[in-house]
């Protein structure tokens, strides 16, 4: 199994012992992305947009785009934010959006409001 670590200077560096993303054959596994500074604003849409931009930077570093995403996992601190996050998230997919689940969790790293991870295929 050939495993390549993908890193983008434009996305936040990992805050623990993990990689931003790992490419195995034609599949890219992107670790959960958060938006630290944006979480402080209290605006969930701003936070979600930054998370999606972080994902975009990592995809670009691997030579991929949002259209390559086949699966997303969204973790929300508050399910009441679902509609606002969904609006932002949906704006990154013109058609044929990926499979996805969205769950509410008790707490997220650095006390952010949203974390998103994705799997993309070349």
Overall description:
By secondary structure, this protein is of the alpha+beta class. The chain has a single domain, classed as 60s Ribosomal Protein L30, Chain: A (2-Layer Sandwich). It contains three helices and six strands. It has a six-stranded mixed beta sheet, covered by helices on one side. It is globular.
Key attributes of the depicted protein:
6 strands; alpha+beta; 122 residues; 60s Ribosomal Protein L30, Chain: A
What is the level-2 CATH architecture name?
Answer: 2-Layer Sandwich
Order of helices and strands: EEEHHEHEE
Uncertain segments are none
Distance between the termini: 17 Å
Oligomer: single chain
Helix amount: 25-40%
Q: Which term fits the overall shape?
A: globular
Treating each run of at least 4 consecutive H or I residues as one helix, how many helices? 3
**Could you state the CATH homologous superfamily?**
RutC-like
Strand order of the largest sheet: 1-2-3-6-4-5
Determine and state the CATH class.
Answer: Alpha Beta
Structural class: alpha+beta
The structural domain count equals: 1
Number of separate strands: 6
> What is the fold-level CATH name, i.e. the topology?
60s Ribosomal Protein L30, Chain: A
Give average pLDDT, whole number. 96
Radius of gyration: 14 Å
What characterizes the major β-sheet?
6 strands, mixed
In percent terms, what proportion of residues is strand? 25-35%
Protein name: RidA family protein
GO molecular function: deaminase activity
InterPro entries: RidA, RutC-like_sf, YjgF/YER057c/UK114
Family: Belongs to the RutC family.
């Amino acid at each position: 199994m050939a495993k390549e670590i993908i890193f983008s200077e434009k996305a936040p560096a990992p805050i623990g012992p993990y990689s931003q993303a790992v490419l195995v054959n034609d599949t890219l596994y992107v670790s959960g992305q958060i938006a630290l500074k944006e979480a402080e604003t209290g605006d969930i849409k701003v936070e979600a947009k930054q998370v999606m931009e972080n994902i975009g930077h990592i995809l670009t570093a691997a030579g991929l785009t949002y259209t390559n995403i086949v699966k997303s996992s969204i973790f929300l601190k508050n399910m009441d934010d679902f509609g606002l996050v969904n609006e932002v998230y949906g704006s990154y997919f013109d058609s044929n959006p990926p499979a996805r689940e969205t769950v509410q969790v008790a707490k997220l790293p650095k006390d952010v409001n949203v974390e998103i991870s994705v799997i993309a295929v070349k």
